[in-house]
Specification:
Number of domains: 2
CATH topology of the largest domain: Rossmann fold
Radius of gyration: 24 Å
Strand content: 15-25%
Mean pLDDT: 84
Largest sheet: 5 strands, mixed
CATH class of the largest domain: Alpha Beta
Distance between the termini: 42 Å
């Protein structure tokens, strides 16, 4: 969706596109490897590299023009403002694109999510309890999520797993975060928060109904999330209590808008 590419990718693209010329050169008999042939092969390689290099600069110039803020401790998280009509435009409700070369693939975020990030950035806090999908938002706000990715046990729930560079979280830690949101006991949830030094809970209201089912499956992989009883179980979970604003003994709601709810451990 309108990504530009880095220097390493540029070089790899050049090599891939130049492979036919390279193979042709090395397939020639020794006697035919004359100076003219070598010059032609090098010329093709240089033209290919120059063309891709020009496109690389063009894309990054467009990307830099959209840069709105550099976030995180070292500015490694980039927030871009996407204008209608661009190739990266998603919809009017998600005018920003949050990205980082050091974490998972970036994604579009809403104005409300950006406001939640700004609120979180100004909080003095320990770690943040949230599902791993929102680690970019949390890290861009300068905070540390308890989990930043899925575990190998739930690899099948990842939309785009990449075996070359995936850094899975420990099974126990992901299961604990799942249990935090799916337990019906506030005492159990409090214990999990204290176990990982977390005092903030970050919840996306828009994706709750989808993710709570994944969390329930992660916490207990023997259950059938499509069973009729499952919807009743969801109503009893801590995740649903956070969403519905139930009266809680150990957690205070400190932020809410259309997209995000943030709670703090008392």
């Amino acid at each position: 969706m309108g990504y530009s590419f880095g220097t390493v990718t540029l070089i790899l693209f050049t090599v891939i596109i130049s492979i036919p010329s390279i193979l042709t050169f090395f397939s020639k008999p020794v006697g035919e490897r004359n100076k003219g042939f070598i010059t032609a092969a090098l010329l093709i390689f240089i033209i290919t590299f120059a063309s891709l290099g020009g496109y690389y600069l063009y894309l990054n110039k467009q990307k830099d023009a959209m840069l709105m803020a550099e976030l995180g401790a070292n500015g490694e998280y980039k927030l871009y403002k996407i204008e209608p009509g661009s190739s990266s435009y998603y919809d009017g409700a998600h005018p920003y694109f949050l990205d980082s070369p050091v974490d998972t693939t970036g994604h579009h975020i809403s104005e409300d999510t950006y406001q939640a990030m700004q609120f979180l950035r100004n909080k003095e806090t320990g770690k943040v309890l949230a599902w791993w999908d929102f680690e970019l938002e949390i890290k861009a706000a300068g905070k540390e999520p308890v989990i930043s990715y899925a575990s190998k046990a739930i690899k099948f729930t990842i939309a785009r797993p990449a075996s070359l560079y995936d850094k899975y979280e420990p099974d126990e830690k992901v299961a604990d975060v799942s249990k935090f949101f799916t337990t019906d006991s506030e005492e159990v949830a409090k214990g999990i928060a204290e176990k990982y030094g977390a005092d903030i809970v970050y919840i996306s209201k828009q994706r709750f109904n989808i993710l709570i089912e994944v969390m329930m499956l992660t916490a207990d992989q023997k259950q059938d999330i499509n069973s009729p009883e499952n919807s009743e179980k969801i109503k009893l979970t801590m995740g649903n209590k956070f969403i519905t604003g139930a009266d809680l003994k150990y957690f205070d709601k400190v932020f809410e808008n259309n997209d995000v709810i943030i709670y703090e451990l008392k």
